[in-house]
Design brief:
Number of helices: 11
Largest sheet: 8 strands, parallel, barrel
Strand order of the largest sheet: 1-2-3-4-5-7-9-10
Number of strands: 17
Radius of gyration: 23 Å
Bound molecules: pyridoxal-5'-phosphate
CATH architecture of the largest domain: Alpha-Beta Barrel
Helix content: 25-40%
Order of helices and strands: HEHEHEHEHEEHEEHEHEHEEHEEEEEH
CATH superfamily of the largest domain: Alanine racemase
Number of domains: 2
Strand content: 15-25%
Structural class: alpha/beta
CATH class of the largest domain: Alpha Beta
């Protein structure tokens, strides 16, 4: 991992939104990479954190982060979880269901703490992305244009009438690796119409925060829009919302992939090769146990043989992982540089810092690999210890079943 890249990504997002007329905050989505050194780097940048689990809060606090910088968006939304994070100082909570809101009300009535609440809406707009979260009737968020309990208007009414809950604003998350930023404009249009309509019905209420979620794309060797292309499409609209609401609000942009992916490469070694018809197979000592999205999403990472060489135009090189599973073949394209592949050389996978080793598994008894960081001072330090095969054996239960484990 490269510390300088992590830091540069923060300033790129901040730079893209510098013309927003209200306060602007970037929030790092810890789920993308919860390595403590990554978290500490972002803590020292003074940004916010988008958390989805109480355990992520523990990681953040152990890394010197404070709960005032947290926006908490749970999927499970249990009362126990809300009580735990509220007792640990979290004051900005996004609710995604009426049941979640009931649980939050129960939690704040026990703790006696006042909490700022946002409603996670699903604007149900068309999204062009690798992962789309704004599908109609999707898993995340509530509908804007419905009147059932699990929709924005009744939940807003309920929040506005509950002691200890302070309505803070709205949140949406449209998807990951978004290729066309116009979906943010469509979502904001729907949200504005909803807010103006709700004001007519409920009277004036403050909108202090609008969180437009994550989705900024990583190049992965292709041309993708930069953060400034995203902000360019929506800044005018965001600034006119300030005029339409009659007061400023804080804009939050969440990001996991954009902030962490490009910082990291994975180095594997070619351990076997074979010819099969027109194809040359090369096998590396890594697999989708290290990069789950290569199997789950057929996601393509930029790859390169080191040292490289020329490739045979009549032969297709297939990059296969070490796992005994036909899914364990990495997607490559003409962008991949696989020429000169032979046993003993390296294959470097680039831009693997997001949703990679946090999804890893020890399939085939594979201990987790070391992670090193190149610090801003140019030193290489171990930031995650690799696991030995003995440690893996113990973690998997080890001698427990032969009666030597804890009772
Ligand atoms: C609510 C929320 N915000 C932000 C993100 C981060 O998305 P990305 O990594 O595409 O920026 C996610 C990812 O799943 C999410 O669920």
């Amino acid at each position: 991992m490269d510390e300088a890249t992590l830091r540069r990504k923060v300033s790129e997002i901040e730079g893209a939104y510098q013309n927003f007329k209200g306060p602007f905050r970037v929030a790092y989505s810890i789920k993308a990479n919860f390595n403590p050194t990554v978290i500490k780097t972002f803590v020292s940048e003074g940004i916010m954190f988008d958390l989805t689990a109480a355990n992520e809060l523990l990681f953040l606090q152990r890394c010197g982060g404070t709960s005032e910088n947290v926006i908490y968006t749970s999927i499970t939304e249990t009362a126990a979880e809300y009580e735990k994070v509220v007792r640990n100082g979290v004051r900005k909570i996004v609710v995604s269901s009426n049941n979640g809101l009931t649980n939050l009300i129960e939690a704040v009535s026990k703790t006696g703490e006042a909490v700022n609440v946002l409603i996670r809406v699903n604007p149900e707009v068309r999204v062009k992305a690798e992962l789309r979260f704004s599908l109609r009737h999707g898993k995340f968020g509530v509908q804007l244009d419905s009147s059932g309990d699990d929709s924005a208007m009744p939940m807003l009414r309920r929040i506005l009438s509950t002691t200890n809950l302070k309505f803070d604003g709205f949140h949406f998350h449209l998807g990951s690796q978004i290729e066309d930023p116009s979906c943010y404009a469509s979502a904001l249009e729907k949200l504005e119409a909803f807010i103006l309509n709700a004001r007519r019905e409920l009277g004036d209420f403050p909108v202090n925060t609008i969180d437009i979620g994550g989705g900024l794309p990583t190049p992965y060797g292709k041309g993708v829009p930069a953060p400034s292309d995203f902000s360019g499409k929506i800044l005018e609209q965001l600034n006119s919302l300030i005029a339409s609401f009659g007061r400023k609000f804080t804009l939050i942009v969440e990001s996991g992939r954009y902030l962490s992916a490009e910082s990291t490469i994975m180095v594997s070694k070619i351990v076997n090769t074979k010819r099969f018809g027109e194809n040359k197979y090369i096998y590396v000592d890594a697999g989708y146990n290290n990069l789950a999205d290569s199997a789950l999403l057929r996601h393509e990472y930029p790859v390169e043989v080191v040292p490289g060489g020329s490739s045979n135009a009549h032969q297709k090189t297939v990059l296969a992982g070490r796992l005994c599973d036909s899914l364990d073949v990495f997607t490559t394209s003409s962008r991949s540089r696989l020429g000169g592949a032979e046993v003993g050389k390296l294959v470097v996978f680039r831009e693997v810092g997001a949703y990679s080793f946090v999804l890893a598994s020890p399939f085939h008894c594979q201990p987790r690999p070391y992670v090193l960081m190149k610090t801003a001072q140019g030193e290489h330090v171990v930031v995650r210890k690799g696991q030995t095969i003995e440690e893996l054996f113990e973690d998997e239960g080890g001698d427990t079943l032969s009666g030597q484990g804890e009772k």
